[in-house]
Specification:
Structural class: mainly beta
Radius of gyration: 14 Å
Number of helices: 0
Shape: globular
Length: about 120
Amino acid sequence: QVQLVESGGGLVQPGGSLRLSCAASKSIFSIYEMGWYRQAPGLERELVAHIGSGSSIKYTDSVKGRFTISSDNAKNTVYLQMNSLKAEDTAVYYCYLREVVGRGYSTSWGQGTQVTVSS
């Protein structure tokens, strides 16, 4: 499996910004999809944003206009720029990478990074 190392989480006040990074142990140039999920206490894990083959991008409705996902293939890294953060964005954010393997997919996960939005 691919190793994913996340960084950039922390404590920020409402309205502030953070940038999460996810570095992969292999080239991300031809992967199927890479992105971020998050999980808040007591809630199910939800997809935040992903970037797919052909640079297709998708966001969950609650972060549209505030979060931006991007990738740097030379660094095998995906970023999540989070602006105008709200208390409800507080969660553990998990990076994932999905690649085609045979007729199916293989998904690798990062260890998670805590994002806390609080005054």
